[in-house]
Amino acid sequence: RIALVAAAVFAWLVAASGQASAHAALVSSEPVDGAVVAEAPALLRLTFSEPVAPLVLKLFRPDGSAVELTEFHTRDAAVEIALPDLPTGTSMLSWRVVSIDGHPVGGSVSFSIGAPSAGRPLDAGSDTSVAVRATIWFVRTVLYAGLLFGAGGAFFLAVMTPGSRAGSRFIRVALFAGLAAAPPALGLQGADALGAELVGLLEGRTWIAAIGTSYANTVAAAILTLVAGLVAAAPGESLLQKAAGAAALAGAGLALALSGHASAAEPQWLTRPSVFLPGVAAAFWLGALVPMQAALRSPDRRALAGIGRFSRTIVIFLAALVAAGTVLAVIQVVDPRLLGGTGYGRVLLAKLGLVAVLLALAALNRWRFTVPALAGDPAARHGLRRSIRVEIAVAAAILAVVALWRFTPPPRALIAEAATPASVHLHSAQAMADISVAPGRVGRVAVAIYPMGADFSPLEAREVTLVLSKADAGIEPLRRAAAKVDGVWRVEELQVPLAGVWQIRVDILISDFEMAKLSGEVELKP
């Protein structure tokens, strides 16, 4: 019966694999970020790496006033936004969208009409506040504990040790705590999506925004899973409780697989099951810890028999955990060199370190303590209880670390974002130029230069030279002559060694006696 439930959920995940793709990243905008255009555009087009749903579109005018934009259309991975009449100067769109993985993504795009505004840049406001982020982390940690310790523990009681009540009080507390955390977890998703403060939980639009994200599916599945766990953990021994326990174990993996960075990565037929299987394995493992600890303190025949079954079965679940976790790590990180240089990589390293401690403790328990403890050796039982207490503490630390992943986009998303060209507009009294550096990150790049007259008319340049420098790193100017290809001046295969802000200059030879030198800055990502 347990295998049939797990197989049904697994099949559903594979069938649903076409419903999501990667974590969203802005690929391009029209007008491009930093562009200077002659006339006010009627539309602003944002193109992402996957389909998104707009949450907040706020336009800042040159005078600093802001207006919410509500007229937009989505087409595939693009969002076309209707713009009001805008005066001369620099305007900025602050956007916030939700990607298919359920995580909100925000940013801004600025453009100038006629000429850039003088003075300090516009302020689009800050991202989610520290208070909201800390509350999200805490509530999600509690929800994860309810799913893994609570639902997993209910499965252990109902299926592995039927009739035993060892650890049942803790399990029920974990299940009720998870149920209590589920509604605020959904509301906080809406506050996070809209960039609102905690008081935003009192507004209907916050909950509407939350329900529109894939995380709402996770919360719904979590609630059903926790309810099934309460049925399984109730006093008694029945077929209904065993079925509820199996459903709770499968539901823990399902809830985790319905949203999040990993579950939304490609290829879906591989990544969704690779989230589901470790979720089930973690619930089976962590859920058994407290009941086993209680059973060793006041041993009875049923509880000890359950520990023996757990010891024989856990190997299968650990194999699935390691295999699926390895697959997800390879897909999410892409390049091992990014492990230490990204927030996601550092969280992953912390999790892997803690999991390694858990695996070492599991090996110690299996090969040294379990057999003599089940045979009645008091010293072995004491050692096993002490080891399980450490496992519980390490497992709780893992849940707290995993909850941090909400705030750390995976390296695969950062790579997609960094592949977006970096654009900059340069101008002087004589001429202007739009510069595009592709990709907008360190390494080998290609630079396209579009010279224009001061009135936006095409400029027939005789020669164009690109000069890049980074004074703060002691890098002397890199000078490259551009070649005109299909009407565009290009510099191919330029090697950029460092990330950060680079000083850029374009020398445009207009005639034998006239040269325009345009200077500015461009930021290149790691």
Helices, strands, pairings?
Elements: H1 2-15, E1 26-30, E2 35-37, E3 43-48, E4 53-60, E5 66-68, E6 72-75, E7 78-82, E8 89-98, E9 104-113, H2 130-160, H3 168-194, H4 204-211, H5 215-232, H6 239-257, H7 268-297, H8 301-333, H9 343-374, H10 378-402, H11 411-418, E10 422-427, E11 431-438, E12 443-453, E13 463-470, E14 475-481, E15 483-485, E16 488-496, E17 500-511, E18 514-524
Parallel strand pairs: 2-9
Antiparallel strand pairs: 1-3, 3-7, 4-5, 4-8, 6-7, 8-9, 10-11, 11-12, 12-16, 13-14, 13-17, 15-16, 17-18
Helix pairs in contact: 1-6, 1-7, 2-3, 2-5, 2-6, 2-7, 2-10, 3-4, 3-5, 5-6, 6-7, 7-8, 7-10, 8-9, 9-10
Give Rg in angstroms.
28 Å
What is the makeup of the main sheet? 5 strands, mixed
Secondary-structure content class: alpha+beta
Q: Can you count the beta strands?
A: 18
Q: How confident overall, as mean pLDDT? A: 85
* Through-space gap between termini: 50 Å
Shape by Cα distribution: elongated
Q: How much helix is in the residues?
A: 40-55%
Task: Give the DSSP E fraction (strand runs of 2 or more residues).
Answer: 15-25%
Structure description:
It is a single chain. The protein has 526 residues and is of the alpha+beta class. 47% of the residues lie in helices and 25% in strands. It has helices spanning 2-15, 130-160, 168-194, 204-211, 215-232, 239-257, 268-297, 301-333, 343-374, 378-402, 411-418; strands at residues 26-30, 35-37, 43-48, 53-60, 66-68, 72-75, 78-82, 89-98, 104-113, 422-427, 431-438, 443-453, 463-470, 475-481, 483-485, 488-496, 500-511, 514-524. It has a five-stranded mixed beta sheet with strand order 2-9-8-4-5. Strands 10-11-12-16-15 form a five-stranded antiparallel beta sheet, with no helix packed on it. Helix 7 (268-297) runs antiparallel to helix 8. The longest helix is centred in the middle third of the chain and has 33 residues, at 301-333. It is elongated, with a radius of gyration of 28 Å. The chain starts with a helix and ends with a strand. 44% of the residues are buried.
